[in-house]
Specification:
Number of helices: 16
Order of helices and strands: HHEHEEEHEEEHEHEHEHEEEHHHHHHHH
Shape: globular
Number of domains: 2
CATH superfamily of the largest domain: Uncharacterised protein PF07075, DUF1343
Largest sheet: 8 strands, mixed
CATH class of the largest domain: Alpha Beta
Strand order of the largest sheet: 1-10-9-8-2-5-7-6
Protein name: DUF1343 domain-containing protein
Domain Peptidoglycan beta-N-acetylmuramidase NamZ N-terminal: 57-255
GO molecular function, one term: peptidoglycan beta-N-acetylmuramidase activity
Strand content: 5-15%
CATH topology of the largest domain: Rossmann fold
Domain Peptidoglycan beta-N-acetylmuramidase NamZ C-terminal: 259-409
CATH architecture of the largest domain: 3-Layer(aba) Sandwich
């Protein structure tokens, strides 16, 4: 456990000075860390339910927000919690909207609760939408990558809470890629919807730790501070493997895809398909032009709720099958895999098209996904991997030191 966060004197000093407006609900100590089951913040109902009594609650949740095996909304309603509205992120409240698709406001058919989209006409709750809310609760499973948009949603919600004097409770969840802190730091001029913060591609933080980072580094407008109340995960450490009980989005539909995602998503800025339009997205890589160089093939098709118009639709793609790739190699190296990017660029016959985002029709250009203009230039130039990694310094090492101030778990 990080000594900065566990020292009573320092915690009292920080709170007294108003530097970190946060209350952390810490689970009871357990012996034998490996033997005790991991319990999410949401699962520890007794630790936060009394605080909800008599309050008008808004939830920032999606299909990953469960207590035990029940959706959090249903479970909290059954316990008498007054939920006045739900805010939904990318992919929607029920998690069935395609990547990048705008999500509309609605009324939840099951509960009758208004659902307001934070991935449509507005990105953060408005003053009017928060007028009848006493407390917001954020409970969404993240996967620890800069370009995964739920940390953007967190940032926007924190901004709205700070502006309107609302407290934000975070029911924390493990990061399945919590062991991995790697990649180039985002350049400021490449700030976008797939890269809001000056962090590496894989940041290794839980959502609650990331919230503390946003507050602590003054990343909200005018260095505003969001009042946080955190319910920690029990019996968790960053290096622990964690298998998600509910997949976080339509195209991260296997544990393998979740673990490969930080090393594969930057292919969305290339002509290479990552398997969108198949039932094995983010576990395969390929393109029609690689026929004859690879024997493995797949064919993207239109899949409603996953990828309606995937790259290379209805065309055989040839390339790499990573479904059986041993992800323990990533855990052992604690590095993103650069070899696949370097290999497929070298193999691709029409290199001028490889990084052409207008041809790829995907989520963004490669530079914004990578967070730097250098990586594309280095791949094109055939720069050795060791030299590429060296170019990520000193920014990466600086971030690794910075994040230690905000860790809640060893």
């Amino acid at each position: 456990m990080n000594k900065l966060l566990t020292s009573p004197v320092l915690v009292i000093l920080v709170l007294a000075l108003g530097l970190l407006p946060v209350q952390v609900v810490t689970p009871s100590a357990t012996s034998g860390r490996a033997a005790a089951p991991i319990l999410t913040g949401a699962d520890q109902v007794d630790r936060y339910l009394p605080y909800l009594k008599g309050k008008r609650i808004a939830l920032v949740v999606n299909q990953t927000s469960i207590i035990g095996t029940r959706p959090s909304v249903d479970s909290l309603l059954s316990r008498g919690v007054k939920i006045v509205k739900v805010f939904g992120p990318e992919h929607g409240f029920r998690g069935n909207a395609s990547n990048g698709a705008k999500v509309s406001d609605e009324v939840d058919a099951k509960t009758g609760i208004p659902v307001i989209s934070l991935y449509g006409k507005n990105k953060k709750p408005s003053r009017e939408q928060l007028a009848d809310v006493d407390l917001l609760i954020y409970d969404i499973q993240d996967v620890g990558a800069r370009f995964y948009t739920y940390i953007n949603t967190l940032d926007h919600v924190m901004e709205a809470c700070a502006e309107n004097g609302k407290e934000l409770m975070i029911l924390d969840r493990p990061n399945p890629n919590g062991y991995l802190v790697d990649g180039p730091i985002l350049d400021d001029h490449l700030h976008s919807g797939i890269g809001m913060h000056r962090i590496p591609i894989s940041h290794g933080l839980t959502i609650a730790e990331f919230a503390q980072l946003i507050n602590g580094e003054g990343w909200l407008p005018n260095r505003a501070q969001c009042k946080l109340r955190i319910v920690k995960v029990a019996n968790y450490a960053h290096d622990m493997p964690y298998e998600l009980p509910v997949f976080p989005s339509p195209n991260l539909n296997t544990q393998q895809s979740i673990l490969l995602y930080p090393s594969i998503c930057w292919f969305e800025g290339t002509i290479i398909s990552q398997g969108r339009g198949t039932y094995m997205p983010f576990t395969v890589l390929g393109a029609p032009a690689l026929k004859g160089q690879y024997s493995f093939s797949f064919k993207p098709v239109s899949l409603k709720g996953m990828s309606e118009t995937p790259l290379h639709q209805d065309t055989d793609c040839y390339g790499l099958d990573l479904r059986q790739y041993d992800t323990a190699k990533l855990r052992k190296s604690k590095q993103l895999n650069l070899a696949w990017l370097m290999e497929l660029y070298k193999a691709y016959p029409d290199k001028e098209r490889f990084f052409d985002a207008t041809q790829s029709k995907q989520m963004g250009n490669f530079d914004k996904l990578a967070g730097t203009e250098n990586l594309k230039k280095q791949i094109i130039a055939g720069t050795p991997e060791a030299e590429i990694r060296k170019s990520w310094e000193p920014g990466l090492s600086g971030f690794k030191t910075l994040r230690k101030k905000y860790l809640l778990y060893p």
